[in-house]
Amino acid sequence: MYVLKLFQAVLVPLSAVGAVAQNNGSYTLREVGARNTVLTLWEKDWRVWLQKDGYPVSPWHDVPLYPDNKPGPVINFVVEIPRWTDGKIETQRNEPLNPLFHDTSKNKPRFVASFWPHKTYPFLYGSIPQTWENKNVKDNYTGLVGDNDPVDLFDVSSISPGYTGEVKQVKVLGGLAMIDYYKVARGKGLNLIIGNEYVNARTMNAKLAESHQHWSDLVLGKEDRGKISIWQTTNPRACKTYVKPEDATKKFEIPEKSNILPPAARPAPYDRWYYVDEKFTLITVPGDVIEVD
């Protein structure tokens, strides 16, 4: 089944457009384990929890979509994959408070192949909090259901490479309605962009408002959430999903403090460059073995 992923292209940090920036200095990180690892029987895999005022919070459900809680062109953005890195870091939708983790394929950490002349991600990549691409509803623009995650975003504005777990404020320029299915480095075709064009900022902001409503219905129990964890620490009125910030560490058995271990080595196949021709077809030579997932 095809699913819709809306990638938001953004350009200007909030401070650059003359608005008053929200103080995100209260967000810190609690990181445990070794990067580039996954769960085994004898060790726990790598996780990063977002903290506010020293307590763990959900980067999906607790960080507001709009910095001032009023709809507008400026939104919050949680960095999952910093610029020029290749680890496929995502928000863990099925665990309490949705820590960031290293996605896997065939029980191994996923990485992104590098295509010349770019090295991995040439932009910051992450998700938009308090949005949900509803898997139960067909989108009126694409006719496809959502992918069950927060809306994805890539930030082309910043010179800084950013860091995993960073909360930024950005201005929406537009979006792409993309079927995230094909992988060129695996010998597959290009990703399909619905309409083969950018969606303008006005339309994209309307889509964000729509996905925010889907998220609200999700956390209020109006939608089938499947395995999604909707625990949160900011809205006590939603009593079925609320936990006091000071109780979250014990309740969800989250490590009390960071314990950062040396990262594991990246798999050798991801150290190489991949090349495509003018038709974006993968170039291979006799005996070439494609080992990326």
Automatic annotation (TrEMBL):
UniProt cofactor(s): Mg(2+)
Entry annotated with the keyword Metal-binding: yes
GO cellular component: cytoplasm
UniProt cross-references to Gene3D superfamilies, sorted A to Z: Inorganic pyrophosphatase
Entry EC no(s): 3.6.1.1
GO molecular function, one term: magnesium ion binding
Signal peptide interval: 1-21
Keyword vocabulary terms for this entry: Hydrolase, Magnesium, Metal-binding, Signal
Keyword ATP-binding included in the entry's annotation: no
Species whose genome carries this gene: Metarhizium robertsii (strain ARSEF 23 / ATCC MYA-3075)
Matches recorded under InterPro entries: Pyrophosphatase (IPR008162), Pyrophosphatase_sf (IPR036649)
Catalytic EC class: hydrolase
Family indicated by similarity: Belongs to the PPase family.
GO process terms (BP): phosphate-containing compound metabolic process
Record-given protein name: inorganic diphosphatase
